[in-house]
Amino acid sequence: MPTHPSHKPGYFYTLYRQHRSTYNLQEHGLRSSASGMIVTMEHAGTHIDALCHQAFDMKLHDNILINNEIETPFGFNKLSVEKIQLIITRGVLLDVAGFKRLDHLPENYEITKQNLKNCAEIEKINVKRGDVVLVRTGYGKFWHNEDKYMKAAGVSLEASKWLADKSVFAVGIDNTAWDLLYARDRESGTTLPSHALLIVEKGIHIMEHLNIEKLATDKQYIFIFICLPLNLRGATGSPIRPIAIAIK
Q1: How far is CA 9 from the centre of its chain?
Q2: With 0-12 CB in 10 A as exposed, 13-18 as middle and 19+ as buried, what is 31?
Q3: Sheet with 170-173: strands ordered across
Q4: CB atoms < 10 A from the CB of 226, how many?
Q5: Which of 31, 83, 163, 238 is deepest in the core (most CB within 10 A)?
Q6: What are the structural domains, with CATH classification, of the chain?
Q7: DSSP 182-198
Q8: Residue 90 phi/psi, 5° resolution?
Q9: How far is CA 101 from CA 98, 124, 240, in A?
Q10: Neighbour-count burial of 125, counting CB atoms closer than 10 A to its CB (0-12 exposed, 13-18 middle, 19+ buried)
Q11: Backbone torsions φ then ψ of 45, nearest 5 degrees
């Protein structure tokens, strides 16, 4: 699967225990079993970022200074992924590619605040406090074409500020980084500037690698959004399988 360079090698699974090695009529009768081992980065595949995932000037959200008590070899003691509440809230889709009448946005296109505002107006959506806002670039369909997928459009810092001012709970997107992959703030030089803004400054979670093509095809712009991150103690993120339930 496509993986952000910072999160290589991504995901590995091995079938450690196999039916062919556990089948034993005398010991188990006709029953046999198989089980495997998963080795993965928390940020491989569809996932959510915990608030300890990013820091700015060595400080986490809520001005928590990173030290040996906070950041340990066994994970974080503050703001880790098991602290995220179960997410059951209103979700909205801002289909920017669809708004522009494109199958997908141009490569490395930076989505502006005006793009999001215009999209919301056309879809008749008023982004509200506590919403989960999903942004569609159209690059989800290139999941099996890593070269193309890694050139996906991303959300500008200005557009992220607009969503943050709405006090949304979380944002999500069909690319690998929310920001443009190699985005850098012109003023501060900060890489992935929207990550620093949303996670560190505002305490807003980011979800990446979302499959939102069906929502766009059905023009389902408002829905019930359900996401249950795994309780991985001390982790900076969690694999997720989010669900959208249509509101009729």
Answers
A1: 18
A2: exposed
A3: 237-239, 47-49, 205-208, 170-173, 132-136, 87-95, 222-227, 243-246
A4: 16
A5: 163
A6: 5-40 (no CATH), 47-246 (3.50.30.50)
A7: T-B-TTT--BSHHHIII
A8: -75, 130
A9: 5, 17, 30
A10: middle
A11: 65, -160
SS3 assignment, position 44 = coil
- The predicted model scores a pTM of 0.94
How is residue 60 written in tokens? 């986490």
Q: What is the residue whose two structure tokens read 């215009």?
A: 118
Rounded Cα distance between 34 and 40, Å, is 20
Does residue 180 carry a pLDDT above 90?
A: yes
For residue 193, say if its preceding peptide bond is cis, omega within 30 degrees of 0: no
Give the pLDDT confidence of 238-248 residue by residue, as tens digits: 999 999 999 87
Distance CA 190, CA 201 (A): 13
The 10s digit of each residue's pLDDT in 132-162 is 999 999 999 999 999 999 999 999 999 999 9
Beta strands 132-136 and 87-95, pairing class: parallel
Give the Cα-Cα-Cα angle 208, 112, 166 (nearest 5 degrees): 70
DSSP H helices, 123-240, are 146-149, 157-165, 193-195, 213-217
In 140-193, DSSP assigns E strands to 154-155, 170-173
Element (H, E) at 118: helix 113-122
Tokens of 223: 């829905």
